[in-house]
Amino acid sequence: MIDDARKISDATRIEADLCIIGGGAAGLTLAHELLDSGLKVVLLEAGGQRPDRATQSLLAGESPGYEPLEQTRLSCLGGTTRVWSGWCRPLDPSDLAPRAWVGADGWPFDRSALNPFYERAHAICELGPFDYRTDAWESESSRRLPLPERLIETVVFQLSPPTRFGRAYGPIVAAAKNITVLRRAVVTELVPDPACRAISHVNIVTLSGPSFAVAARVYVLAAGGIENARLLLLSDSVQAGGLGNAHDQVGRYFMEHPYVTSSTVSLARNHPSLQFYWPHSAGRSGARARVRGVFVIPTARLAVERLLQCALFLLPPHEAHPSMTTETATALRRLRLSLQSGWSFPQNRKLLSTVLRDPVLTSRVLANRILRRGTYFRRTRRLSVRTFCESMPNALSRVRLVPTRDQLGRRRVRLDWKAGEPELRSMTRAHELLDEGLRRTGIGHLDRTGLDESSALESGRHHMGTTRMHRDPRSGVADENCRVHGLGNLFIAGSSVFPTAGYANPTLTIVALAIRLADHIRLLHRDGKL
User: Fold this and answer.
1) Predicted structure pTM score
2) % of the chain residues with pLDDT over 90
3) Strands 13-21 and 41-45
């Protein structure tokens, strides 16, 4: 059942076995996996069926040098999967391992422990077979470039349709007899028992006035990389400093994927086909998927040169046109994202003014996008290169509370993201290696390889790491089962538990971890430990 929390009588207390806070990819996956569990589940979503200005404003905060926070996530059923691009790849085994040069102890388990859940996550994300061997997706007409693999490698991403979780799984979850979804239910605090050993209940308010509580045997925070940390910090009525924060770990180690359109590749006249690096359908024996190749630094070289992993991908030919780097093109892209998300960004008026100020340039951008979009790579000799990079886990990159408050009286947050020299050095080195590989094989070259502090880094809007997993409570917030240290019945789902970010988009790993957590909760229920 899906209901509107504004209809619930003031001061009501709802009883459940499991309370899930957040209805994005993590929360909906968790609920979907528990359809036949016999558990009475209440899922609390702060937003409605689609975003609106009032609910989005609850996500605003301070973010110097970063995008406005309310524009980097969506408060609605399905969350940011409403605008998700669909790129999927599991974390590499090396991403989970200890890496001294990254300052990371690694994950509390290795990649083999996640593989069964990645395979199940493929079905949730509507992907092909769980197979990321590059040669599994090659064919006679579509192959990786013959670059020296000690310099640069080609790996594969699979592309989800993309799955809109609210549309795909909201109705299924709502139809389940054991699950109630309450929209527009904004959590203000997780209240522990007096000894602060377990959560007693959750306080909820609505923008229209009614407030109530949910009491459950188990709670899962699945509100996103920023809100998970915020809710733990706000829950300070019993324990000063918030829950799970005895060692000042909540909110720290925020990670992002910095993106930059960084160079142009100039190709030789008779260059090999680049079809493998364009989104395309591939596969053998009927097991097909949408895939695309990207360039990465070989794993062995990362340790030797003490680098972060980067991925470089080729943009469609129309993106290499000079008009596509203008302020007008950027404004059009952001307006399109606003329309796709279903709500009007506050700066849309300014963006629209930019578009209307130069109708000739706007027409050129639109014509270039429409007329050249279908051009195959083999028909052009110049393509733009876009790069993204994993983020260094830095204790000074953090989410913390500030004195200003939202409409409901909750303290807002400040996000400080410290991307800098390690990321820029790694991206520069990735460009040098790709350039060397292209030159050695006579395929082409990059026009520019160096990045510096003037490079226009953009965020991937991938919020990770603020409640990271670590077996030692002095170094993390959650244990290897995503349970908050010191609290027997509070778990966390989502990318906030990532100890390291890797370079792959996080959605597939978010879903895999949610499936893993659902199995753990089932096991606790079976053994009578809930």
Assistant:
1) 0.93
2) 76
3) parallel
